[in-house]
Design a protein that fits this description.
The chain has 17 helices and nine strands. It has 528 residues and is mainly α. Bound molecules: protoporphyrin IX containing FE. The site of protoporphyrin IX containing FE (HEM) has 26 residues, from helix 11, helix 12 and helix 16. One of its GO terms (biological process) is organic acid metabolic process.
Length: 528
């Protein structure tokens, strides 16, 4: 009886003590966390504090890049804010962006729900040694296949692009006078350029495989959009519905993976180390070499070889397709709004190139109006308005402020390109701002459409080649106008990872070449 009574007493005491201990423990934890947040906030760049857990999410309205731009007006060119539990640091001064992104410690990428799904594979969302090795390898590979301003291989890349340009023009010519939305035609042509370099794959227009491929990518973008909330408030991932989105993403990725794996398997069967056909072959070569040297298990930091190749192909495709397609759509849209600019480009090309052939890369140096127009399109549309988010690889100091390792660092390229202290009337489409007093094209150091620093765009040279060859050939071959009875399409874009114009149609009137009138056939430039 006594023993029973004592044990009840001890239990009651323990319960009381443990409840109290737990309460004290929780209180200490909360105080420590609050102190940590306050300490962190004290040394952070200025910006709105927002609410606990939600941060400034409730004040978000409209496009994120415009929200950030408005904050920079209020707090300065280096700001911090919280979206949910994520700390965001926004840089909008080009010198600050350039100086920071040159440094090794700004080459990290944030860890998010998105990067967790990718599992550390690829190049765009990796950091550290894997990223560095992959970036160098891809850079060398792209140069080998002609992504270079100099050398004989440049012609090889030019030919690849011109093959697609000519097919593109043929499809447009076949439309006769009927108004056309250029988007789906451009999607196939631009995909073919990058898929040819990556894995010698070409799709025909109306190809069912291609339509499915694009559907998966489009759906992927939308599904990731619906995951966005969980990127900012991580505990939302425990809510019902989140898992089904995640599962759908994984299912889609598996289907994309299957398509890419089939291509990898086909390449393996026909692989010849003395004749590397594309980037995929250079990967197979690297893997073979490492296996022969007994270092295969170290390659890609020990990650699965096939999965890494799949993700690299996926990364390069998504980085190199949408960006070029959107830029070309913006270029056409600005021509509809500025027909006098289109006319002066056409006059320049008629004079310099003549009407016997399509433009070549070597003409670019003699076409300042055409080149400056492409630059102005890149500036004013800022299709990647917030670059790609970086993250410090360790706690760092920037302009006297403390940035913790987990911060997401956003280079606000849109704000740089729209800064009235750098550009005269930045809202105005004015290609001549890129032409100096001697009539030569000049790019100021604050022109950053491809980012800057160690992680700047890996495909810039290819992008410039494609933009010039597609845009100049289109204008050399057609007069572009708004279809009869339709209004001028809006210049307001849809902001996602990139900014794309709303769907619009154009009317194309052929500008006949001399070879099309003459009895003899003159082969267009680039089709050797
Ligand atoms: C008009 C076309 C393009 C624009 C405006 C553009 C712009 C950009 C920007 C702003 C970045 C982020 C830089 C940073 O993180 O600081 C980037 C990264 C990247 N771009 Fe492009 N890009 C274009 C075309 C291409 C093409 C054609 C390719 C592929 C051949 C490509 C491949 C990449 C890759 C792989 C990265 C990630 C680099 C890394 O994480 O180290 N881009 N691009």
């Amino acid at each position: 009886m006594f023993v029973y009574g004592a044990s009840v007493l001890i239990n009651v005491l323990l319960e009381q003590i443990s409840t109290k201990v737990l309460a004290v423990f929780l209180a200490v934890l909360i105080i420590v966390r609050v102190l940590q947040v306050l300490r962190e906030a004290f040394f952070l760049p200025p910006g709105p504090w927002g609410l606990p857990i939600l941060g400034s999410l409730l004040s978000l309205k409209g496009d994120l890049h415009l929200h950030f731009r408005d904050l920079t007006y209020k707090y300065g060119s280096l700001i911090s804010t919280r979206l949910g539990t994520q700390l965001i640091v926004v840089l909008s001064d080009y010198k600050m962006i350039r100086d920071a992104f040159r440094k090794e410690e700004f080459t990290g990428r944030p860890t998010t729900e998105f990067t967790n799904i990718l599992g550390g594979y690829g190049v765009i969302n990796t950091a550290g040694k894997l990223w560095k090795d992959q970036r160098r390898f891809l850079h060398d590979g792209l140069r080998h296949f002609g992504m270079s301003y100099l050398g004989s291989r440049k012609a090889q890349m030019e030919n690849r692009i011109m093959k697609e340009v000519e097919e593109f023009l043929c499809v447009l010519k076949a439309r006769k006078d009927r108004p056309i939305d250029l988007n789906p035609v451009l999607a196939v042509s631009i995909s073919n350029v990058i898929c040819d370099v990556l894995m010698s794959v070409r799709f025909s227009h109306n190809d069912k495989r291609f339509i499915r491929f694009m559907d998966l990518i489009d759906e992927g973008f939308k599904l990731f959009g619906s995951l966005q909330a969980a990127l900012f408030i991580p505990f939302l991932k425990y809510l019902p519905g989140h898992n089904s989105t995640r599962e759908k993403i994984s299912k889609n990725r598996a289907e994309m993976g299957e398509f890419l794996q089939e291509t990898i398997d086909e390449h393996r069967k026909t692989f010849d180390p003395s004749h590397l056909r594309d980037l995929l072959d250079t990967y197979l070569y690297e893997i073979q070499k490492a296996n022969e040297e007994g270092t295969g298990h170290h390659l890609f930091e020990g990650k699965d070889h096939d999965r890494q190749m799949q993700q690299i192909m996926g990364d390069m495709f998504s980085a190199g397709m949408e960006t070029i397609k959107s830029s070309l759509q913006w270029a056409v849209l600005f021509m509809l709004h500025n027909p006098e600019v289109m006319k002066s480009i056409q006059e320049e090309m008629d004079q310099v190139i003549g009407r016997q052939r399509l433009p070549k890369l070597e003409d670019l140096a003699y076409l300042p109006v055409t080149e400056s127009t492409i630059l102005e399109v890149l500036r004013i549309s800022s299709i990647v308005p917030m670059g790609t988010t970086h993250s410090p690889t360790r706690d760092v100091k920037l302009n006297g402020f403390h940035l913790p390792q987990h911060a997401q660092v956003v280079p606000l390229l849109h704000a740089v390109h729209m800064d009235p202290t750098l550009w005269d009337e930045p809202d105005k489409f004015n290609p001549s701002r890129f032409i100096n007093a001697e009539g030569k094209v000049q790019k100021p150091e604050y022109f950053l459409p491809f980012g800057v620093g160690r992680r700047m765009c890996l495909g810039e040279i290819l992008a410039r080649m494609e933009l010039f060859l597609f845009f100049s050939s289109l204008l050399h071959s057609f007069n572009i106008s708004v279809p009869e009875g339709e209004t001028l399409p809006s210049l307001k874009g849809i902001a996602g990872v990139t900014i794309t114009p709303n769907a619009f149609k154009v009317s194309l009137k052929p500008r006949p070449m001399e070879w099309e009138n003459a009895a003899t056939t003159i082969r267009p430039a680039g089709s050797h």
